[in-house]
Amino acid sequence: MWTPWRIVGESLLSVVLGLLAGAAELLSDGGTVRIAVAALAAALLSPLRRVLPATVLLTTALGMSEFDGLSPLVVVAAWSAGRRIGGVGKAAGTFGAAYVVILGLTLLKEAPPSLLSLALVAPVTLVMVVVPGLISRYWSQHRTLADILREYNAQLLRERAMIAGQARMRERQRIAQDMHDSLGHQLTLISVHTGALEVDRELTGRQREAVGVLREASVAAMHELREVVGLLRDGTESPGQGSQGGQEGRGGQLGQGATSHALQAMGEEDATAPSRGAAGIEGLVEASRGAATAVELRRSGEPRPLAPTADHAAYRVAQEGLTNAHKHAPGASITIELRYEPDALVVEVANGPAPEAAGTGRSVVSGGQGLTGLGERTRLIGGMVHAGPTADGGFRLAGVLPYTSPEGAPSHSSGGAATFVDATDDFRLQNAAGPSDEGDPVIDWNSLPKELARAMSREKRRNGIAIGCGLAALFGLLLLIVVVIGVVVFLQEADKAMIEPKQYDAVKMGQSEAKVREQLPDGESFLTSGLDEGAPPEPKGAECLTLMSTETGDGLDEPVFRFCFKGGKLIEKKSFEIRR
Fold first, then answer.
1. Which residues contact 157 (CB under 8 A, 6 or more apart)?
2. pTM
3. Helix ranges restricted to H, 199-276
4. Of 302, 410, 320, nearest to 366 (Cα)?
5. Which of 39, 331, 523, 563 has CA atoms 20 to 30 A from the CA of 205?
6. pLDDT band for position 368 (50/70/90)?
7. pLDDT (tens digit, 9 = 90+) per residue, 193-242?
8. Which residues are within 8 A (CB) of 89 and not within 5 positions of it... i.e. 6 or more apart?
């Protein structure tokens, strides 16, 4: 089915070709009937060339013998035929037949046809028929090959994306499994030991309270670990499932009574675990206060809902700030401020300088990756993080988190997969969709499938043979035309500069100049240049005509005839030889 634009274009082309054919017949003084027939034929044959390319080309070639106005249609039909005729042999036969028909019928109009007409008509017909067909055929084959490569390119990119996704999934599952096996085991031991210690009757109230804080912290850590493992596994295992069974197996080594009590407490904590969002920051504050740390929580502005990723990032900013304060400034006062600005939530955690007597001799384990990961997390949602010392010797961590995620940002709530790499290193962003002939990724074409490579090789071989034969034929024909034109020009110049010896003998001394010049050519040709060099001196006051002989001389000598006139009569005729 043709598109509306194609229908409009074909209609306009038919009208233009019809008008050109009618105008050509009008200029050649054709009658009204001829003008109408030529215009109607061009208008009707133009759209048919897409369905019957060979037939339209041959029909138009035959019609050119009667209507010269069909010449533009021949060029258009040849272009369409080059693209649409399948098979090299069929295409060569069609174009050869069209060329012979046009050339033959054009020469048959003359009676008899001359060499000059052949020299002029042959190249014009070649340009009208053969050249557009060859160019169109090459362009069509090139476009077909480009389409095949573009389709393979898209397929290859899809396969690479799938492979990268599978590799990423396997790596995430491996990391999740390692975290589950190592960190889960250690946290389970801490929870079980603290749970067993909490029910020890020998502990004082203060000690039991401290052990309870440790147990709650370990349970919260396990809860967060399960969330991270669940995210890494892309939801294949929901948080709180699967991990507990493994922990129970490992905790059984410590005694059935204490273990059961501890795990029961862990289950209760899991059921009532606070939200890992801005609402859960108050739980972090309470946990820190339970560790004998002065923590102040401030809120300003009207609370507004955040996107799930931004809400989780707010919790992580507060958590990271508190963790760093406990590690590097134990005993220092901490202030957490939540400011709901018009366009973003600002989470700020600031601590004062560490007391001089606090934390001395304490070993602090720090991987140095907390702030880096936090910066990546906030960057992905369109926010930012700032961290640095304060004027009083403390430390400040602040995160700016927009209420809505930027367009294209990954969102866990929508099921999108997050990536913690820079955009320039993200495989999915490297292969953005775009035009195949502009800015496509570079593909190693040595990895083409055997079937495609074999098909491309056969197609390239056939195309090369066809184009080579066409170009060779075109070159040979052009060379023949040049030779024919040269021969015609030489013969025309020879008629102006050469005479036979019998013509020389027929001229008699004393004849009038007008009668002699009437019998001889005028000698105005490039062939007569240089004939006066080495010739005998001319009679004084005479005007001479020097011509060449149709007979060749011996070796390098060339016979020449000279006729000299004076007073309107032939006063001298001389035959001599010159060396050129």
1. 431, 441
2. 0.39
3. 205-232, 243-251, 256-271
4. 320
5. 331
6. low
7. 777 777 777 788 788 788 888 878 888 887 777 777 777 765 443 333 33
8. none
Residues 70 and 105: their CA atoms lie apart, in Å, by: 14
CB atoms within 10 A of CB 41: 21
Q: Enumerate the β-bridge partners of residue 572.
A: 564
Q: Are 42 and 18 in contact (CB under 8 A)?
A: yes
Quickly count: other Cβ atoms within 10 Å of residue 256's Cβ: 9
> 300 vs 295, 304, 410, CA distance in Å?
17, 11, 29
Tokens of 81: 């035929």
C-alpha 292/C-alpha 247 separation (Å) is 30
Closest-CA residue to 139 (of 98, 80, 56, 51)? 80
Helix axes 53-63, 71-84, angle to 10 degrees: 160
**Which residue type occupies 69?**
G
Class (C level, CATH) for 500-579 = alpha beta
The domain spans of the chain are 4-159, 500-579
Q: In angstroms, rounded to a whole number, what is the distance separating the alpha carbons of residues 55 and 59?
A: 6
Which tokens go with 517?
Answer: 């010049």
Q: CA 468, CA 344: separation in Å to the nearest integer? A: 68
Q: Which tokens go with 291?
A: 């560790």
Give exposure, 50-62, as e/b (b: 16+ Cβ within 10 Å).
eebbbebbbbbbe
Query: Residue 297 class from Cβ within 10 Å (0-12 exposed, 13-18 middle, 19+ buried)?
Result: middle
Phi, psi of 217 (to 5 degrees): -65, -40
